[in-house]
Structure formats: structure tokens, C-alpha cells
Specification:
Elements: E1 2-6, H1 10-21, E2 25-29, H2 35-38, E3 47-50, H3 52-59, H4 64-68, E4 72-74, E5 76-80, E6 86-90, E7 98-102, H5 103-115, E8 120-123, E9 126-131, E10 138-142, E11 148-151, E12 155-158, H6 165-173, E13 178-193, E14 208-212, E15 217-222, E16 228-235, H7 249-259, H8 270-276, E17 280-288, E18 291-292, E19 296-298, E20 304-305, H9 313-331, H10 335-365, H11 371-386, H12 394-400, H13 406-424, H14 429-432, H15 436-445
Parallel strand pairs: 1-2, 1-12, 2-8, 5-14, 12-19
Antiparallel strand pairs: 3-7, 4-7, 5-6, 9-10, 10-11, 13-16, 13-17, 14-15, 15-16, 17-20, 18-19
Helix pairs in contact: 1-5, 1-9, 3-9, 9-10, 10-13
Bound molecules: flavin-adenine dinucleotide.
């Protein structure tokens, strides 16, 4: 078939490889210039955490080893408290890690790998402007020449991100198209910790650093050159501590010295970065359907944009490709059946990871510094070690268990949380947490 993909981001690029390997002719049209030539960053130079679902997506087309070369394992959270003390919380069992990758680096690598397929062509500076819901006719406008290209492919994929033009066109043309978009109160800003001498790491390399401060937080992920990309997540406006109130150099320094005193000496360009880098919003998008007239389908952020606190947006998009591929296998290229089952299967999982991501914001910014919450995690970890077939902690289900659907993980996680709330309410739980009594109670409740 002739397939057109709108968007050569992370998901569009990977999807093209899956489709090309099945013999389809794939044309990708991308609004931006070729970032490999223009040396522009892929939008935001934010690092992404790649975990097992993402790896599975890459392995499915045999490119995981290529990506491993540009990924740094992070085995746990390294917590920086306000008083300067620190704590380390492993993410899972030994050797279980999530991986820090630069968005630009992984996107460029995926584009390189896509272009190695003889039946993939990439077209840059081409902005999708219109898609016809009945025919799948799609129109791109060249952003340099204004030339219009109109195509009539057999199939169109909208992989054009959170503000998808394909989705917008479907929204305008389809009666009863469900669309729900909401912003959380926090926005984010990228900052930086440069490398030490000779490219050394000034804070622990193989960890995701968190400065949890209740209603806001800063995180840092490692880069190969010894630097860390930091992200400050802070209320946009309306609160005493918010971006709205950080207007001058003095405001910024006062805020950082008060809240992140151990980080400030590591951030020599803090003030410059703060005022140069944009403050960006965080949106969740839920919509349905994802498939239109057996001709057009949404995938990745275009179908389900989520906030980044579970580190799953890209991973979820890569998993979309895995599911689609397994359905192509199952239905032997019967595309109406493939697409129908794809949207029915994936929609509950897209919704579930969107909700989990919001829930994890509260956990990261607030609870990672809370002694009671840490005790709860300790009890869960111990119980799970003893009864691995009865209890997989929610974080592990989402991050390290690609065979468990996000929707199942959410359901199971809520059930576990209800049990743990009862356990944590026991008087003296601090002293009896590893007793037989507590273990028996959990077993009964399960
Ligand atoms: C701050 C932040 C941190 C994140 N951290 C993580 C993380 O740790 N782990 C994780 O898994 N995910 C993370 N994510 C989510 C992740 O970035 C997205 O889920 C992922 O990029 C989705 O890939 P995509 O290909 O669907 O969309 P995108 O990567 O956004 O790609 C869409 C592409 O479509 C192009 N495009 C847009 N409009 C048009 C048009 N009209 N015509 C043609 N082309 C168009 C764009 O230029 C872009 O290249 C994070 C997101 C943010 C904002």
C-alpha cells in the first residue's frame, strides 16, 4: 500500500519502519526542516526516560541496540531534600532501570534508521493542512515555497503530535468526535547542570534526580557529556510560588537559594537559562475515535497526549506501534479489521496512562519526600519480593511489565492502594511493618 504519515517525530519515524518492513511504501511529511541538517533541537531539548515498553517497540524492528548506544541507565530516584540531605530509592529490582535519552538524539537516530529502508521517503518543511475524512486525500503546504502537495494514499497516519493537524481536521469534519483537552496548573522550564572537569558528572550519574517540594519540583536527567538536563515543574500562575512571581534575577536567585540550595552552585547559567528558555505548558488530550473510514488513523501523542510524570508518552506511542504490528499479523493485512481493533484495544490504555501520569505528578513532587509514603513503598517492595505472583508494585507494572496493559495496571494499582491505605492506618505501623501480622493481613485482603 501507499501510506502517508504526517509527522516524523518519535512515533511517526518508528511506525514508518514497522510498515516499511512489511513491504509498504511509506512517505513521511514533516512540518519542520530536517533537524539532522539544520542542527536544530527536536523542539524541546528535554531528555526522555525510555523504559521497557519503548524498548519492546524498538526491538520489534531490530533497532534497540542502536538506541542503547545513546541511552544512559538510571537505576533509581536520587532525592535532594531542602536541608541538603539526600536519599536514594531504587526503581525496582537490581538491574531494572529506565534510560535517559536526548529527544533530539533519539529522533535523529530513528530518522536515520527509517531512511535506511528503501521504501521510506521523507519530506521536510511540509505542513499538513487538510485531510478529507471520506477519501483520505491529504494536503501539505511547503513552509518555504508555499507549494501545495495533494496526495491520495491508501492509508494516512496522523503522528503529528499533541496538536495534531490530522486530528483537528477529523474533529472539524466528524459529528460526535469526542475531544477533551486540559492543562494542569504546572508549567515547566528547562535548565542545566554543566559537566564537571573532563566531562565528569557533578551529581550521581545513573539516577533520576528529584528535588521534591510539595506543590512543585525540579528533576535532572544525565547526558553523555557529563551534563544534566534539569526541568523545573512549577505552578504557572496564581500561587505564591509560581512562574508568575519569578520576574527578576533577584526573584529567581532567591527562589532557588531557598528551595534548591544544593543545586544552585552546580548551575552557573541558572539566571541566563531561566530567562532564555521558554516556560511551556503541560496538556492532556483524550479523544475518540482514532480511526476514520478505514483510511485515517491517529497514533502517538496525536491520539493521546499525556503529562510527562510517568515518563511514558513516547513509550506508549512506541507500544501503539507494537500493538498495530501484532494486529497486522493477526488480521493478515485486512486493514479495516486491523484499525478497528487497534482503536478499541488502545483507547482504554491511552486513557489509563493519561490518568496514571497525573497521579504520578503528586507522587513525585510531594510524596517522594514523605516518610509514611516511603514506608508504604518499603512494605510493598518487601511483600512483592516474597509473593511476586501476588503483588507487582504499580510503578513496576507500568515501567517494567510491557505484557501488562496500562488499563490493567491502573485498575490493579488502585486496588493495591486501597489495601495499603488500610495497612498504613494500623496503629504502630512504623514498628510492625515487617511483621507476620501485617503480611497475613495483606494476604487476606488480596
Ligand atoms: C517535558 C516533557 C517530558 C517528557 N518526558 C518523557 C519521558 O521521560 N518518557 C516518555 O516516554 N515520554 C516523555 N514525554 C512525552 C514524549 O515527548 C511524547 O509522548 C512523544 O514525543 C510523542 O511522540 P509523537 O511522535 O507522537 O509526537 P512528537 O514527538 O511531538 O512528534 C510530532 C511530529 O509531528 C510534526 N508535526 C506537527 N504538526 C505537523 C503538521 N501539521 N504537519 C506535519 N508535521 C507536523 C512535529 O514537527 C513533530 O516532528 C515528555 C514530554 C514532555 C513535554
Amino acid at each position: 500500500m501507499n501510506i502517508v504519515i504526517s509527522g516524523s517525530g518519535l512515533v511517526g519515524s518508528l511506525l514508518s519502519i514497522y510498515l516499511a518492513k512489511r513491504g509498504h511504501k511509506v512517505d513521511i511529511y514533516e512540518r519542520r526542516p530536517d533537524m539532522r541538517k539544520a542542527k536544530i533541537s527536536a523542539g524541546k531539548s528535554i531528555n526522555l526516560a525510555l523504559s521497557d515498553r519503548g524498548w519492546k517497540g524498538l526491538e520489534g524492528v531490530g533497532i534497540a541496540d542502536e538506541i542503547r548506544k545513546i541511552a544512559i541507565p538510571m537505576y533509581g530516584r536520587f532525592i535532594h531534600h531542602k536541608d541538603g540531605s539526600t536519599a536514594y530509592q531504587a526503581y525496582g529490582k537490581k538491574e531494572q532501570a529506565i534510560y535517559s535519552v536526548s529527544r533530539g538524539a533519539i529522533n535523529m537516530k530513528l530518522m536515520d534508521l527509517a531512511e535506511q529502508q528503501p521504501n521510506i521517503s521523507m519530506h521536510f518543511n511540509e505542513r499538513c493542512d487538510y485531510v478529507d475524512k471520506n477519501t483520505g486525500t491529504i494536503k501539505f503546504i511547503n513552509t518555504e515555497t508555499n507549494n501545495v502537495t495533494t496526495l491520495n494514499p491508501d492509508l494516512v497516519f496522523g503522528a503529528d503530535g499533541a496538536f495534531s493537524a490530522v486530528r483537528l481536521n477529523m474533529q472539524l469534519q466528524n459529528d460526535r468526535f469526542d475531544y477533551h483537552q486540559f492543562y494542569i496548573e504546572a508549567s515547566y522550564k528547562e535548565l542545566s547542570i554543566p559537566p564537571g572537569e573532563n566531562g565528569s558528572f557533578l551529581i550521581k550519574k545513573n539516577a533520576l534526580h528529584i528535588w521534591p517540594r510539595g506543590s512543585f519540583m525540579m528533576i535532572a536527567l544525565p547526558n553523555f557529556d557529563g551534563s544534566f538536563t534539569c526541568t523545573l515543574f512549577l505552578t504557572h500562575e496564581g500561587a505564591e510560588k509560581s512562574f508568575e512571581h519569578l520576574k527578576t534575577k533577584e526573584d529567581v536567585l532567591k527562589f532557588f537559594n531557598e528551595e534548591f540550595p544544593d543545586a544552585v552552585p552546580l548551575m552557573p547559567t541558572l539566571v541566563e537559562d531561566f530567562f532564555t528558555n521558554p516556560t511551556s505548558s503541560l496538556v492532556t488530550v483524550k479523544c475518540y475515535p482514532w480511526v476514520f473510514n478505514d483510511k485515517i488513523a491517529l497514533i502517538g501523542d496525536a491520539a493521546h497526549a499525556i503529562v510527562p510524570f510517568y515518563g511514558q508518552g513516547m513509550n506508549c506511542g512506541f507500544e501503539d506501534c507494537v500493538v498495530l504490528n501484532s494486529l497486522i499479523e493477526k488480521h493478515k493485512e485486512d486493514w479495516p479489521k486491523i484499525l478497528q481493533e487497534y482503536q478499541v484495544l488502545r483507547k482504554p490504555d491511552g486513557d489509563a496512562i493519561a490518568d496514571l501520569a497525573i497521579m504520578n505528578f503528586v507522587e513525585m513532587r510531594d510524596k517522594t519526600a514523605d516518610a509514611k509514603f516511603l514506608l508504604q513503598k518499603k512494605i510493598e517492595a518487601r511483600f512483592s519480593e516474597k509473593y511476586p505472583d501476588k503483588w507487582i508494585p504499580l510503578y513496576s507494572m507500568v515501567t517494567y511489565s510491557p505484557h501488562i496493559r496500562y488499563s490493567t495496571a491502573l485498575k490493579e494499582g488502585l486496588r493495591q492502594e486501597a489495601i495499603m491505605q488500610e495497612i498504613m492506618a494500623l496503629p504502630n505501623i512504623e514498628h510492625i511493618w515487617d511483621s507476620e501480622e501485617v503480611e497475613k493481613m495483606i494476604l487476606e485482603k488480596i
